[in-house]
Design brief:
This protein is of the alpha+beta class. The protein contains 8 helices and 3 strands. It has a 3-stranded antiparallel beta sheet with strand order 1-2-3. α7 packs across α8. Bound molecules: FE2/S2 (inorganic) cluster.
Length: 180
């Protein structure tokens, strides 16, 4: 069982919203179903027993889950699990100015994409080249073993996007607006 700490009101609201969505059809009848609040609590408790609060926060938050027009670096990789990760980068003077991701994968892959994007922002390209899947897992407070490969997919995609910057520079100019 994971260690639980005090939840901010914002995080609590996010969890409640998630639980109501997860409970789907039952949510429509919540006012008529006396056990609904208990059910919601149970769903939240189960989620928090599997994932750290940082991981949950990452996959419920969407600010870096976005496409980017005319990125300086871009990569898309489909992992052995069949899920696809995309990474978008803007750089200047050897520093990553902005980073974002998109994935059609599981919740942990969203958390890993979000974490890799967040960790890259404001860092030198040289530093992010050395990032490992373990760095992502550590920053997320770990993932269930069966989801650890999601961190590898995020890091591999980030590294390909870094290589793409070099390819774009060699090709002598910025990538035209992406048509994906
Ligand atoms: Fe495929 Fe998470 S990235 S299961």
């Amino acid at each position: 069982m994971r260690e639980k700490h005090h939840l901010s009101a914002e995080f609590r609201n996010m969890l409640e919203q998630w639980a109501e969505d997860a409970l789907g059809g039952i949510g429509i009848f919540k006012d008529r179903y006396p056990g609904f609040e208990k059910l919601k609590e149970k769903a939240i408790e189960q989620l928090r027993s599997v994932y750290s609060d940082i991981t949950i926060d990452m996959f419920l938050r969407t600010e870096d889950n976005r496409r980017m027009d005319s990125p300086d670096g871009f990569a898309r990789i489909t992992g052995p699990c069949g899920d696809t990760m995309e990474i978008y980068l803007k750089v200047g003077s050897g520093v990553i100015l902005d980073s974002s991701f998109q994935t059609d994968g599981c919740s942990p892959s969203k958390a890993c994409g979000g974490m890799v994007a967040q960790m890259a922002k404001g860092k030198s390209i040289a530093k992010i080249k050395k990032l490992t899947a373990q760095d992502i897992l550590d920053a997320l407070g770990g993932l269930p073993e069966e989801s650890e490969h999601c961190a590898t997919l995020a890091v591999d995609t980030m590294k390909e996007a870094l290589k793409d910057i070099v390819r774009q520079e060699k090709a002598g100019g910025k990538r035209q607006r992406l048509r994906l």
